[in-house]
Amino acid sequence: MGEHKLLLEHAHDPSYGTLDGYLAKGGYQGLKRALAMPRQEVIDHVKASGLRGRGGAGFPTWIKWNGIEKEKKAAHHFILCNADEGEPGTFKDKQLMEETPFLLIEGMTIAGHATLGDTGYIYIRGEFVDAARALRNAIDEAYAAGYLGKNILGSGLDFDLHLHLGAGSYECGEESALMSSLMGERGMPRLKFPHAPLPTVAGLWDLPTVINNVETYCCAPFILDRGGEWYATLGASTKNSRGTKIFSVSGHVNKPGNYEIEFGTTLNELLEMSGGMKGGKLKACVPGGSSVPIIDADACGKAIIGYEEMGEVGSMVGSGGCMFLNEHTCIVKFIWRTALFYANESCGKCTPCREGTKWMLQVLERIVQGHGQPGDVQVLKDICEQIDGRSFCGLGDAAAWPVAGALKVFPEEFEYYIANGRSMVDTELGREMVPA
Fold first, then answer.
1. What order do you get walking across the sheet with 282-286 strand by strand?
2. pLDDT in tens, 153-209
3. Which domains does the chain have, with CATH numbers?
4. DSSP class of 71
5. pTM of full prediction above 0.85
6. At CB < 8 A and 24+ separation, what contacts does 420-428 make?
7. Computed from CA positions of residues 27, 28, 34, 36, in that sequence, does the dihedral angle turn out positive or negative?
């Protein structure tokens, strides 16, 4: 277990961002092997690998790829990459696009071959200028050398790849809102299965569409090059998590950054890799991006990184945005800041999210300003229950889980803030009340 560099092995080598450098280090071997296989065999390798979506949901990748019709009846099959990466605390996809752009391009081309895809789109967050520039250069090189376009490597595969910059909306990281935005509509979510067809049946422009995130596609070249069974040996100690996962570690650590680990690694081992705690003892951790429930130091000591294993300690792998918080952190203020983000990012389409995130923020603001009222904790719990599972898309859940989790794990801090009009941490440190 521990650190296992696969996707990030050559990330800091500038030559790896060029086609010559990528080929010199084994690039495009996965695509060449895939092109020599029947399409279903490619999907079978992805199935054998146990690869699950790295964007947060952890959905088995092969099921999406296998859901596309086996005979091409529609005008196009689309391969769509979610590169919007707006989850606070997460910055892994940005590095992959900046330093390993050909991994993403090759992975999407493999997906195109496996699903009869002829057109790909990378929907990238508009602020990621350096990543977009790196991808643009790599796409141009790939076209010039015959790795994109018509009759790729003489195989008969035609695959075009386009880059689309979004406008910086967190909501557009939700796959149906992303498709709406890409089609020129407002970035709002659509109805989902079972009330509407799956994207593999009717996605972008109502045509068959495969959607995965950057890290997921980047795994495909290794799986096809070395085999699905080989990939499945990584993380074999977990219940159902295979391969490696990149964690964006931030917060009160000595060496923040991206760390690629094998599933089955403990959360404490990840903390050691990032240089240990800075400025105080470990108090809490948000393991998978700001939307997942917070856990305390005791739970961190028991946590094994895996989709099911993280659930056993009350949190999630999520997108891999791991924030370690030291003992001087006021949880109430931390959660207020988190709630502020989600209230601002709600697209406003549905009542539970539009109104619920606003009400939740109002109560939290009242508390951190020293005007909390008896019963505010119960009010927050009630609001979370009314949002969770009732919103049109996952943004409502993402807003409710952090608040509900903090109320469960650190109830005493909320009660103290309400009763005393100040943070428990400020009192313990003997300092004046620090404004939120």
1. 257-262, 244-251, 321-326, 282-286, 295-296
2. 999 999 999 999 998 889 999 999 999 999 999 999 988 877 778 999 999 999 999
3. 14-232 (3.40.50.11540), 244-326 (3.10.20.600), 331-429 (1.20.1440.230)
4. S
5. yes
6. 421/370, 421/371, 421/372, 422/370, 423/330, 423/332, 423/333, 424/330, 425/328, 425/329, 425/330, 426/330
7. negative
